[in-house]
Amino acid sequence: MNAQKRLEIFTRLREHNPEPTTELHWSTPFELLTAVLLSAQATDVGVNKATARLFPVANTPQAILDLGIDGLKEHIRTIGLYNTKAENLMKTCRILVEQHGCKVPKTRADLEALPGVGRKTANVILNTAFGEPTIAVDTHIFRVSNRTGLAKGKDVVEVEKKLLRHVPREFLQDAHHWLILHGRYTCVARKPRCGSCVIEDLCEFKDKVDL
Ligand code: SF4
User: Fold this and answer.
1) Rg of the chain over CA atoms, in angstroms?
2) DSSP category for residue 163
3) Active-site residues: which are they?
4) What is the pTM of this model?
Protein backbone atom coordinates (compact mmCIF):
# COMPACT_ATOMS: atom_id res chain seq x y z
CA MET A 1 0.00 0.00 0.00
CA ASN A 2 1.34 3.42 -0.85
CA ALA A 3 1.70 6.37 1.52
CA GLN A 4 -1.10 8.37 -0.09
CA LYS A 5 -3.61 5.60 0.52
CA ARG A 6 -2.53 5.24 4.14
CA LEU A 7 -2.97 8.96 4.61
CA GLU A 8 -6.45 8.83 3.08
CA ILE A 9 -7.46 5.84 5.20
CA PHE A 10 -6.60 7.57 8.47
CA THR A 11 -8.08 10.86 7.30
CA ARG A 12 -11.39 9.08 6.73
CA LEU A 13 -11.23 7.16 10.00
CA ARG A 14 -10.62 10.46 11.79
CA GLU A 15 -13.53 12.16 10.00
CA HIS A 16 -15.72 9.25 11.03
CA ASN A 17 -14.58 9.35 14.67
CA PRO A 18 -12.58 12.49 15.59
CA GLU A 19 -11.81 11.46 19.18
CA PRO A 20 -11.42 7.70 19.40
CA THR A 21 -10.67 6.09 22.72
CA THR A 22 -10.88 2.83 24.59
CA GLU A 23 -14.30 1.43 25.46
CA LEU A 24 -13.01 0.40 28.87
CA HIS A 25 -14.09 2.75 31.66
CA TRP A 26 -11.24 4.32 33.63
CA SER A 27 -10.24 7.58 35.27
CA THR A 28 -6.68 6.96 36.48
CA PRO A 29 -3.72 5.04 35.02
CA PHE A 30 -4.17 2.42 37.75
CA GLU A 31 -7.84 1.94 36.85
CA LEU A 32 -6.89 1.54 33.20
CA LEU A 33 -4.16 -0.97 34.08
CA THR A 34 -6.64 -2.93 36.19
CA ALA A 35 -9.29 -2.90 33.46
CA VAL A 36 -6.81 -4.04 30.80
CA LEU A 37 -5.49 -6.81 33.07
CA LEU A 38 -9.06 -8.02 33.50
CA SER A 39 -9.92 -7.77 29.81
CA ALA A 40 -8.04 -10.76 28.38
CA GLN A 41 -10.60 -13.07 26.76
CA ALA A 42 -13.41 -10.94 28.15
CA THR A 43 -15.58 -8.24 26.61
CA ASP A 44 -15.13 -4.59 27.49
CA VAL A 45 -18.79 -4.53 28.51
CA GLY A 46 -18.20 -7.38 30.97
CA VAL A 47 -15.07 -5.73 32.38
CA ASN A 48 -16.89 -2.40 32.76
CA LYS A 49 -19.65 -4.10 34.75
CA ALA A 50 -17.10 -5.64 37.10
CA THR A 51 -15.02 -2.50 37.53
CA ALA A 52 -18.21 -0.50 38.19
CA ARG A 53 -18.51 -2.67 41.30
CA LEU A 54 -14.80 -2.78 42.12
CA PHE A 55 -13.56 0.79 41.64
CA PRO A 56 -15.93 2.51 44.09
CA VAL A 57 -14.59 0.12 46.73
CA ALA A 58 -10.96 -0.13 45.66
CA ASN A 59 -9.21 1.81 42.87
CA THR A 60 -5.65 2.06 44.20
CA PRO A 61 -2.98 -0.62 44.61
CA GLN A 62 -3.14 -0.42 48.39
CA ALA A 63 -6.94 -0.60 48.46
CA ILE A 64 -6.88 -3.72 46.27
CA LEU A 65 -4.28 -5.30 48.57
CA ASP A 66 -6.48 -4.42 51.53
CA LEU A 67 -9.39 -6.26 49.91
CA GLY A 68 -7.35 -9.45 49.95
CA ILE A 69 -7.48 -12.09 47.24
CA ASP A 70 -10.91 -13.41 48.23
CA GLY A 71 -12.39 -9.94 48.50
CA LEU A 72 -11.02 -9.08 45.06
CA LYS A 73 -12.43 -12.25 43.54
CA GLU A 74 -15.87 -11.39 44.87
CA HIS A 75 -15.88 -8.27 42.69
CA ILE A 76 -14.53 -9.81 39.50
CA ARG A 77 -15.91 -13.35 39.52
CA THR A 78 -18.19 -12.60 36.54
CA ILE A 79 -15.10 -12.27 34.32
CA GLY A 80 -13.45 -15.25 32.65
CA LEU A 81 -10.17 -16.48 34.14
CA TYR A 82 -10.87 -14.41 37.24
CA ASN A 83 -8.77 -16.61 39.53
CA THR A 84 -5.60 -16.07 37.54
CA LYS A 85 -6.41 -12.43 36.92
CA ALA A 86 -6.97 -11.84 40.65
CA GLU A 87 -3.62 -13.39 41.47
CA ASN A 88 -1.80 -11.32 38.85
CA LEU A 89 -3.53 -8.14 39.97
CA MET A 90 -2.60 -8.75 43.62
CA LYS A 91 1.05 -9.38 42.68
CA THR A 92 1.05 -6.29 40.48
CA CYS A 93 -0.38 -4.17 43.28
CA ARG A 94 2.30 -5.42 45.65
CA ILE A 95 5.03 -4.37 43.20
CA LEU A 96 3.41 -0.97 42.59
CA VAL A 97 3.27 -0.32 46.33
CA GLU A 98 6.78 -1.58 47.11
CA GLN A 99 8.68 -0.39 44.05
CA HIS A 100 6.79 2.41 42.33
CA GLY A 101 5.28 4.55 45.08
CA CYS A 102 1.78 3.20 44.32
CA LYS A 103 1.98 4.65 40.80
CA VAL A 104 1.80 2.94 37.41
CA PRO A 105 5.29 3.11 35.88
CA LYS A 106 5.74 4.97 32.61
CA THR A 107 8.40 2.83 30.96
CA ARG A 108 7.85 -0.25 28.86
CA ALA A 109 10.43 -2.25 30.82
CA ASP A 110 8.81 -1.52 34.18
CA LEU A 111 5.34 -2.20 32.82
CA GLU A 112 6.30 -5.51 31.24
CA ALA A 113 7.90 -6.58 34.54
CA LEU A 114 4.44 -6.56 36.16
CA PRO A 115 2.66 -9.94 36.42
CA GLY A 116 0.11 -10.38 33.63
CA VAL A 117 1.43 -7.41 31.66
CA GLY A 118 2.77 -8.26 28.22
CA ARG A 119 3.75 -6.11 25.27
CA LYS A 120 0.15 -5.46 24.22
CA THR A 121 -0.98 -4.30 27.66
CA ALA A 122 2.12 -2.14 28.06
CA ASN A 123 1.36 -0.51 24.70
CA VAL A 124 -2.23 0.22 25.75
CA ILE A 125 -1.08 1.87 28.99
CA LEU A 126 1.69 3.86 27.30
CA ASN A 127 -0.68 5.05 24.60
CA THR A 128 -3.94 5.63 26.42
CA ALA A 129 -2.82 6.62 29.92
CA PHE A 130 0.44 8.38 29.05
CA GLY A 131 -0.13 9.65 25.51
CA GLU A 132 2.71 7.83 23.80
CA PRO A 133 2.36 6.99 20.09
CA THR A 134 2.40 3.21 20.58
CA ILE A 135 0.15 0.69 18.84
CA ALA A 136 -1.07 -2.36 20.76
CA VAL A 137 -1.76 -4.92 18.06
CA ASP A 138 -4.63 -7.14 19.14
CA THR A 139 -6.67 -9.55 17.06
CA HIS A 140 -8.72 -6.71 15.53
CA ILE A 141 -5.75 -4.58 14.52
CA PHE A 142 -3.92 -7.63 13.20
CA ARG A 143 -6.88 -8.54 10.97
CA VAL A 144 -7.60 -5.00 9.74
CA SER A 145 -3.94 -4.30 8.99
CA ASN A 146 -3.51 -7.49 6.99
CA ARG A 147 -6.81 -7.27 5.11
CA THR A 148 -6.54 -3.65 4.10
CA GLY A 149 -2.84 -3.86 3.28
CA LEU A 150 -1.98 -1.13 5.79
CA ALA A 151 0.65 -3.42 7.32
CA LYS A 152 0.94 -7.05 6.37
CA GLY A 153 2.68 -9.39 8.77
CA LYS A 154 2.65 -12.95 10.02
CA ASP A 155 2.57 -12.04 13.70
CA VAL A 156 1.56 -9.11 15.89
CA VAL A 157 5.10 -7.85 16.42
CA GLU A 158 5.76 -7.63 12.68
CA VAL A 159 2.46 -5.78 12.15
CA GLU A 160 3.23 -3.44 15.05
CA LYS A 161 6.65 -2.57 13.63
CA LYS A 162 5.24 -1.91 10.17
CA LEU A 163 2.41 0.22 11.51
CA LEU A 164 4.83 2.29 13.58
CA ARG A 165 6.94 2.81 10.46
CA HIS A 166 4.12 3.55 8.01
CA VAL A 167 1.24 5.22 9.86
CA PRO A 168 1.51 8.95 9.10
CA ARG A 169 2.90 10.75 12.14
CA GLU A 170 -0.13 12.94 12.78
CA PHE A 171 -2.30 9.82 13.15
CA LEU A 172 0.07 7.68 15.22
CA GLN A 173 -1.32 8.63 18.63
CA ASP A 174 -4.87 7.54 17.81
CA ALA A 175 -4.24 4.84 15.18
CA HIS A 176 -4.54 2.13 17.82
CA HIS A 177 -8.13 3.05 18.67
CA TRP A 178 -9.27 3.74 15.11
CA LEU A 179 -8.08 0.32 13.99
CA ILE A 180 -9.54 -1.56 16.97
CA LEU A 181 -12.93 0.10 16.58
CA HIS A 182 -12.90 -0.48 12.83
CA GLY A 183 -12.17 -4.16 13.41
CA ARG A 184 -14.71 -4.49 16.19
CA TYR A 185 -17.66 -2.93 14.38
CA THR A 186 -17.01 -2.92 10.62
CA CYS A 187 -14.14 -5.14 9.53
CA VAL A 188 -15.39 -7.98 11.71
CA ALA A 189 -13.79 -11.40 11.57
CA ARG A 190 -16.35 -13.56 9.78
CA LYS A 191 -18.23 -11.29 7.41
CA PRO A 192 -16.67 -7.86 7.14
CA ARG A 193 -19.25 -5.14 6.49
CA CYS A 194 -17.57 -3.89 3.34
CA GLY A 195 -20.78 -2.38 2.00
CA SER A 196 -20.86 0.17 4.81
CA CYS A 197 -17.10 0.56 5.24
CA VAL A 198 -15.81 4.14 4.96
CA ILE A 199 -12.48 2.96 3.51
CA GLU A 200 -13.86 0.33 1.13
CA ASP A 201 -12.44 1.96 -2.01
CA LEU A 202 -8.98 2.16 -0.41
CA CYS A 203 -8.89 -1.33 1.11
CA GLU A 204 -6.86 -3.94 -0.78
CA PHE A 205 -8.64 -7.01 0.65
CA LYS A 206 -9.38 -9.46 -2.18
CA ASP A 207 -12.46 -11.09 -0.65
CA LYS A 208 -14.65 -8.14 0.21
CA VAL A 209 -18.22 -8.91 1.23
CA ASP A 210 -21.03 -6.68 -0.03
CA LEU A 211 -22.96 -6.41 3.24
S1 SF4 B 1 -13.60 -3.01 2.81
FE2 SF4 B 1 -14.16 -4.80 4.00
S3 SF4 B 1 -12.24 -5.91 4.34
FE4 SF4 B 1 -11.74 -3.80 3.74
S5 SF4 B 1 -11.52 -2.68 5.67
FE6 SF4 B 1 -13.60 -2.38 4.97
S7 SF4 B 1 -14.73 -4.00 6.00
FE8 SF4 B 1 -12.58 -4.58 6.10
Assistant:
1) 18
2) H
3) 120, 138
4) 0.87
